[in-house]
Amino acid sequence: MQRILVAEDDPILSMIYEITLTEAGFDILLCKDGQEAFEALEAFQPDLVITDHSMPRMSGGELVSAVRRLRPGASTLMASAVDLRLLKDDQHADARLEKPITPGRLLQTVRDLEAARYAAE
After folding, report:
1. Is 90 exceeded by the pLDDT of residue 81?
2. Which CATH number fits domain 3-120: 3.30.413.10, 3.20.20.70, 3.40.50.2300, 3.30.530.20?
């Protein structure tokens, strides 16, 4: 897993994602909302999409559904303080990270998804 697309409308969290994941050796593309991330899917070809749940223009759940259709091999991680049990079945990500997010928890969750992906191959 090398390419990570991040959809996060909070600039401070975006900075945490960027610093943590770039220092860990990942290629990161930051998007300010779900719609921008959706538009970047084809060109960026991410291995993992990390998304906030509540964003303007396209929610994280809607983005996860789109990733499943357009990039079926990509993993998804939903980062949110929202009760994600309210999502439709097709909007559930492969993993969930509850806010507030720390760099250590973020990196561990990404590494766990990476290990699961390679174990499935």
Report:
1. no
2. 3.40.50.2300
